């Protein structure tokens, strides 16, 4: 069994922001917490129930609704979460 770590409020908000921007990029009017849209690029994958940061294989999971029973595969600092999500946001818009 894989160890799961608690994900704190700030990284959770960053995940919601990323999922919201993915929804907007796919021309969906708003994020549906029970149906997170699928998106994948070279940096990350997001889909219903799972987010994977490919560069270090960090996986964030949730049950049915984004935010419910949310857990992370790695014990990251807030700084590490922030760097990860900034990289994901940059990759979503092809920024370097």
Strand order of the largest sheet: 1-6-5-4-3-2
Distance between the termini: 37 Å
Question: Given the helix and strand composition, which structural class is it?
Answer: alpha+beta
Reading the helices and strands in chain order gives: EHEEEEEH
Number of helices: 2
Question: Share of helix among residues?
Answer: 25-40%
What kind of sheet is the major sheet?
A: 6 strands, antiparallel
Oligomeric state of the chains present here: single chain
Strand residues, percent: 15-25%
Task: Give a structural overview.
Helices cover 33% and strands 19% of the residues. It is an alpha+beta fold and 96 residues long. The protein has one domain (5-92). The protein has a six-stranded antiparallel beta sheet with strand order 1-6-5-4-3-2, with helices on one face. It is globular, with a radius of gyration of 12 Å.
Question: How would you summarize the topology of this molecule?
Answer:
Layout: E1 5-6, H1 9-25, E2 39-40, E3 44-47, E4 50-53, E5 58-61, E6 71-72, H2 78-92
Antiparallel strand pairs: 1-6, 2-3, 3-4, 4-5, 5-6
Helix pairs in contact: 1-2
Task: Provide the descriptors you would attach to this structure in a database record.
6 strands, 2 helices, 6-stranded antiparallel beta sheet, 96 residues, single chain, alpha+beta
Brief account:
The protein has two helices and six strands. It is α+β, with helices and mostly antiparallel strands and 96 residues long. α1 packs parallel to α2.
């Amino acid at each position: 069994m894989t160890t799961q770590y608690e994900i704190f409020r700030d990284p959770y908000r960053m995940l919601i922001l990323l999922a919201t921007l993915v929804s907007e990029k796919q021309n969906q009017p708003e994020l549906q917490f029970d149906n997170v849209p699928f998106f994948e690029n070279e940096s990350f994958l997001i889909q219903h129930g799972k987010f994977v940061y490919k560069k270090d294989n960090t996986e964030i999971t949730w049950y049915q609704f984004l935010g419910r029973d949310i857990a992370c595969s790695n014990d990251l600092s807030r700084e590490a979460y922030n760097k990860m999500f900034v990289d994901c946001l940059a990759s979503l818009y092809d920024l370097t």
